[in-house]
Automatic annotation (TrEMBL):
Transmembrane segments: 17-37, 43-62, 74-99
Domain of life: Bacteria
Organism in which the protein naturally occurs: Mycobacterium [tuberculosis] TKK-01-0051
Keywords from the named record: Membrane, Transmembrane, Transmembrane helix
Name this protein carries in UniProt: Uncharacterized protein
Length: 102
């Protein structure tokens, strides 16, 4: 009856919601990674599959249009922070240990 839609879909797949969700996930996941996973190595075998499943859920939600898609993209981006930080810093710690004190 009218040309204006009831639900406004965002023009960009990314927005403030994506940023807010990604920042919240970076804070929570990195905090959990550095407090629990790094000191207890066997815990990596439990956390890694859970993180991969959660990233997959975020990818499925990211395919949705509108706000749900933004929420899913934020989940995916933020959830990658834990494994990527381990991937970057573990070799750095190993190299620093091999070099020894300066």
């Amino acid at each position: 009856m009218t040309d204006t839609p009831l639900i406004r879909t965002p023009s960009s797949p990314y927005g403030p919601l994506t940023f807010a969700v990604a920042m919240a996930h970076v804070f929570v996941i990195d905090l959990a990674t550095w407090l629990f996973v790094l000191p207890m190595w066997p815990f990596v075998l439990v956390v890694l599959p859970i993180t991969l499943v959660y990233i997959g859920i975020g990818a499925v939600i990211a395919r949705a249009p509108g706000r749900w898609g933004q929420l899913g993209r934020g989940m995916m981006i933020g959830s990658l922070s834990g494994p990527l930080s381990l991937l970057i810093f573990i070799p750095a710690f190993i190299i620093a240990g091999a070099i020894g004190p300066l």
